[in-house]
Amino acid sequence: MPSIDFTLPHWAYWAGLILFPIIAATLANRPRKTERRYSLSLGYFILITGGMLGLHRFYVKSLLGFLFIPVFIAILYANAQGHDARGTVSDMSNVVRMAERSLEREQERVDTAQADLPKLREELAAAEEGSFAQKRAQRNVDRAEKRVTDGEAVIEQAQTDLVEARPKRDAAAAVLAKWRSISKYAFWVLLAGIVIDALLLPMLVRRANAALPEHEEESEVERRLEALEDEEMKDDSRHISQGWTGWIDRLSLKAGEFVSYWAIIAVFVYYFEVISRYVFNSPTNWAHEAMYLMFGMQYLISGAYAMLTESHVRVDIFYAPLSKPRKAWVDLLTSVFFFIFAGTLLVTSWIFAMDAIAVPTGNGLISQWARGEIPTGEMLANWNLGQWTDANVRWGEISFNEWEVPLWPMKWVMVIGALLLVLQGISKFAQDLRIVMGRG
C-alpha cells in the first residue's frame, strides 16, 4: 500500500477556517432550484470524498456501487491482519536485536575473563597464606569465575532467544508481506474503478437526469425539512432587538453562524484521518490537534450567540415563572456578576494574546514589537510578504507536537470571543433597561 505523508500547512489551516464558512454560507443561502437535478460537480465531490465506498454510484442511482464495498473491506481486513503481523515482526526483531547485542557484549567479557583466570590463579597460589594479598587475589579469581558463569548463562539465553525469535520474525514478515500485497492489489483495483468512473461520471449524471420524471412532487420529509429550516431562521431573527443594540445582536448572530460551519470541517478532517490510518497505514500528526484547537475557538466565539439566543444552561426554577419586567429586574441586578466575569475574561485574554506573540522564540516583526524591541512605526514599515511565507520566521508561541502550529491566533480568538460577549452583555443590559422603563 502507498503511504500518505501529507501534513496540512499552517496557512491552509487558518485560511480554511476563514474561507470555508464564507463559501458554505453563500452556497446555503443561494436560491434553491425548483426542480430536482443531479449535479456533475456534486458527483465529482462525492467521488473524491467517498469514491472508495462507491458513494458516487449510489448518488446517480447505480447499484454497481456495491462492487466497491467488498474491495474496500478487503483493504481494511488486510491492513488489520498486517497490523498484527507488523507488531509481531517488531517484537521479534527487538528480541533478536537484544540477543545479538548480548552475545556480542557477553562473549567478549567471557573471553577476557577466561584469558585472565590462569594468571589470577597463579597470583592466588603465590600469595602468602592469610595475607591481604591472598584475599585480594581470591576476590579477583571469584569475580572472574562469576563473570564467566554469568556470561555463559546470558549467552545461552541469548542463543535460545535467537533460535526461537528468528523463525517467528521471518514467519511474521512473510505474513506481513502477503497481506501488504493483498492490500496493495485491492487498492489498485479500487483506484482503477474510481478513475474509470471519473471518466464515466458525466454520462452517468446525464442518464440519471434523463430518468427523472418531468414534475416530481416534494416528499413529506422534504417539506418538513424546509419548514424546519424556515422556522429556525425566523427563530434566530426574533432575537434581534430594535434600536442601536440591533447591530450587536446581528454581529453575535453572524459570528455564531460563521463558526457553526466549522463542524463540517471536522467531518472532512476526521474522515481523512480515518482513511489515512486504516487504509493507508499513515496516521496524521496534525488532525487531532487541528480539530480540538478549532473546537476551542468555536466555543469562545459562539458564547455571544448562546447569550443572545438564551441557549446556554441555567437554572430556571425561580426565573422562568417571572413576568417579563421582573425577569428584566433580575437580569439587571445579576448583570454585575456577568460583567465581572466577561471583563476579567477580556483582560486576561488580552494578556495571554500579547504574551503568546512576545515569547522569546518568536523572531518575526510582530514578536519583536510585542516584546518592545521595535516601535510600531518600524514594525509597519518593515512588514513584507516574507513575514507570512518564510518558514524561518516564527511568530511567538507554537504547539509542542510535530505539527508546531502557531498558537497565538487562538489566543487572539479568545480576545475576540470575550469582546463579543461583553458587547452582547451591553445589548442585553440596554434591552432590560428598556423593559424596566416601559419602552420594550
What would you note in describing this structure?
With 440 residues, the protein is mainly alpha-helical. It has helices spanning 10-29, 40-50, 55-59, 68-126, 132-210, 220-237, 246-260, 262-278, 287-301, 303-309, 324-357, 365-370, 376-381, 386-389, 408-436. It is extended. It is found in: Cell inner membrane. Part of the tripartite ATP-independent periplasmic (TRAP) transport system.
Which keywords apply here?
440 residues; mainly alpha; 15 helices; 74% helix; extended
Q: Helical residue percent?
A: over 70%
Radius of gyration: 35 Å
Low-confidence stretches: none
> Biggest β-sheet, characterized?
none
Distance between termini? 67 Å
Topology pattern, helix = H, strand = E: HHHHHHHHHHHHHHH
Q: In oligomeric terms, what are we looking at?
A: single chain
Please describe the topology of this protein:
Blueprint: H1 10-29, H2 40-50, H3 55-59, H4 68-126, H5 132-210, H6 220-237, H7 246-260, H8 262-278, H9 287-301, H10 303-309, H11 324-357, H12 365-370, H13 376-381, H14 386-389, H15 408-436
What's a quick, concise take on this entry?
It holds the Pfam family DctQ. By secondary structure, this protein is an all-alpha fold. The chain is 74% helix and 0% strand.
